[in-house]
Amino acid sequence: MNNEAMFLLIHGARIIDPSQGIDQVGDLLIVEGKIAQVGRAILSGQLSEWTKKKMETLDATGLIVCPGFIDIHCHLREPGFENKETIATGTKAAAIGGFVAVCCMPNTDPPLDNAAVVDWVKRKASKDGVVAVFPIGCITKNRKGEELTDFAELTEAGVVGFSDDGAPVMNSQLMRRALEHSRTLGLPIIDHCEDKALSAGGIINEGRMSDKLRLKGIPAAAEEVMVARDLILAKLTRAKLHIAHVSTKGSMELIRRAKEETIPVTSEVTPHHLTLTETQITSGPPHKSLNPNAKVNPPLRTVEDVNALIEGLKEGVIDAIATDHAPHTSADKNCGLEAAAFGISGFETALGCLLSLVHQGKLSLVQLISKLTHEPAKIIARNNELGTLKIGVPANITLLDPDLEWVVNSHNFVSKGKNTPYEGYRFRGKIMATIANSKLVHIDDSLVIKQSNAAI
Ligand code: DOR
Asked: 166 CA distance to ligand 1 centroid (A)?
């Protein structure tokens, strides 16, 4: 396939683009890398001889074509933790997951707390990355929660928001200042909500499972008190607050009330918090041993929480789905549950597990695609050419088969992180191809791109 300037006709797919209310079977035409026509069948007579000569075709009958997925929360680990992931491996894994753009968290070494490091990541991403990479800058220097970073300098360097990720700002006055600064720049504070005193030493959700296994729990309150505090501060400052990986029913209800009060808040939920519960910790092989790959922060919660999160997503209380892709080495995970790192490698399983919600009738396909495309695009508003199939924008497209079955085998992951709680799961639905910034960055072996002359 000629990746220089893409001329591609995607035939006969169901095209879903929530940004324009499109859901119809038809063709999608890409000319010189840009979306040229969407929807109806494209006839040979409509194309110039020159275009026809260059055109390649892809028969997408039975497939879904939609805007490329956007992941507003992931960990690419570079610089500093290249043993866990690199920008090269992480973005390749993202492409396999259907993502055309990812926002990477600043908990690297050094952390993304100044323009020079952000610049380094951007340059590395344009060299090694196969999908767009948008860095998130730190709120405080060295993520220590003591002194604010230079928000203006980081904005100039190109960050899409500010976060101290897993080291949330405990000082409320500093958080107020952070919100005030971010407001002047129009970027969101991306908030990992966790009261570290309440969660200290915790491994899994505090509740029936932690009691049964005699493991130290992380209470829902550790998340909810911080959600409540920061919603109050967002109300005070009128700054954009984005709540990361909402995991409890209580947090969802707090966000619902805040939205009713028109506090400027958005939120995200992960695929794992939508599909797994606290019992997953006992799913380790061979005899239901404790599974470090189900250890994640915030922890997997209860069925009641999962159901509330799905409802919240449907109702728009939760705006977007983000993977929180957190790759770790096997050594970081297989060192006893207490010492094991928190996190799930999420890019390559996201669609498979999320489609289970569609197949079970809990979410519509259009809703799911909206939460992976149009909605996250609005949250990282720095690039308005993403999350849409509007005519004239560079092609950022995901093709998926909603019914193709496959079994998760982490040995086949392109990500260095094999830490998945979905090992051995049979999923129905697979990413078939990903086009990022007008380049084909992933294609399933079963799809064939042909020279067009025969087809049009
Ligand atoms: O499970 C998690 N892993 N939660 C976080 O907040 C951080 C992440 C990581 O960096 O591994």
From this structure: 6
